[in-house]
Amino acid sequence: MLTIEPNEIHVWLAFPDELHDTGLLAAYEQLMTQEEKNRQRQFVFEKDRHQYTVTRALVRTTLSHYSAIHPADWRFCKNEYGKPEIANTAVKDSLRFNVSHTKGLIICGVARRHAIGVDVENIYRRNAVLNIAKRYFSPQEIMNLEALPEKRQKEVFFCYWTLKEAYIKARGMGLSFPLEKFSICLADNEPLGISFDPDVNDQSDRWRLWLFKPTDNHYMALAVCPEGARLGKVTFMKTVPLQQHEVFLFEANSLNYLHERKDKDE
Ligand SMILES: CC(C)(COP(=O)(O)OP(=O)(O)OC[C@H]1O[C@@H](n2cnc3c(N)ncnc32)[C@H](O)[C@@H]1OP(=O)(O)O)[C@@H](O)C(=O)NCCC(=O)NCCS
Q1: Considering only CA atoms, which residue is closest to atom 14 of ligand 1?
Q2: What is the pLDDT of residue 254?
Q3: HSE-up of 249 (CA within 13 Å, CB side)?
Q4: In this structure, which residue's CA is closest to atom 27 in ligand 1?
Q5: Rounded (5°) CA angle 168-42-104
Q6: For a substitution probing ligand 1, which of 28, 120, 165 has the most ligand atoms within 8 Å of its CB?
Q7: Which of 10, 125, 138, 238 ranks highest by number of CB atoms within 10 Å?
Q8: CA 206, 207, 213: angle at the middle one, nearest 5?
Q9: Strand partners, 9
Q10: Distance of CA 171 from the midpoint of ligand 1 (Å)
Q11: How far apart are CA 107 and CA 187, in angstroms?
Q12: For 71-124, what is each residue's pLDDT tens digit?
């Protein structure tokens, strides 16, 4: 069993393209509720069924690292916007999680009591990023992107995108939250930040944001509302659910770590 202190964030990473063992995949299916099995069967493409199955196994086995609850025994409820939370009464007030999946990578962020949101995106998936930005981003973010040389735009677009998604996922409100009414501050030599239009009910200093590039193809963002706690470092674990896990260290020579917002008093 692992412990997670109130000042810690753990992020578990599963690489679905590396998981092919049919026995293991069958064991993952055994962990799912009937409702999850029904949903899994509704996916038309095998790759989507696979992604769904590994996601369920990742969530269930990850949470069981922090509690005596068996992976098959986790139960979940959703808020009015669809954010899944733990329903098991023994732990529902002391463990929070959030999941994100994209081609080639699935992540599950875990915290004690803090609201947490995570997002991972595969950067080769989208082109015409300015058009997408003009639809979803704030005027400030669009202006910043337009000012960049074209070859930098896609990279910065994904920084904005993943951080914005992580924030709205931490809030648990999905796309009902107005994406254009808050801005991510990504300036060089400045901590990662977030600012809100005056009519948005939130404050910048409630939030800590992180941005990482765990592989050449992926950007990954975390948003956590520490509510007074002094958050320590984020720990990453690479896992093959039900089999093994190890601390995941990004390769040192490829600028994988982008920004970390420091506590103001550090
Ligand atoms: C549903 C949404 C919360 C995330 O969607 P997404 O980025 O496509 O998908 P992700 O893989 O990051 O996250 C999906 C997971 O988030 C969780 N989730 C669902 N609703 C959620 C909510 N309201 N809040 C937080 N998490 C939520 C679920 O666990 C879900 O996975 P599951 O269905 O397998 O359990 C929502 O933000 C969305 O639809 N975004 C679309 C992307 C977009 O247009 N972004 C605009 C540019 S920033």
Answers
A1: 100
A2: 38
A3: 3
A4: 83
A5: 55
A6: 165
A7: 138
A8: 175
A9: 234
A10: 12
A11: 26
A12: 999 999 999 999 999 999 999 999 999 999 999 999 999 999 899 999 999 988
- Amino acid identity of 214? P
Distance, CA of 255 to CA of 266 (rounded, Å) = 23
Question: pLDDT, tens digit, for every residue of 64-79?
Answer: 999 999 999 999 999 9
Segments of the chain with pLDDT less than 50: 252-257, 260-266
List domains and CATH numbers for the chain: 9-15+93-260 (3.90.470.20)
In angstroms, rounded to a whole number, what is the distance separating the alpha carbons of residues 213 and 178? 26
pLDDT at site 191: 74
Of all protein residues, whose CA lies closest to atom 12 belonging to ligand 1? 100
User: 85, 76 in Cβ contact below 8 A?
Assistant: yes
What is the crossing angle of helices 129-136 and 150-171, to 10°? 40
Q: Which atom of ligand 1 is nearest to the CA of 101?
A: 11
Beta bridge partners, 236, equal 11
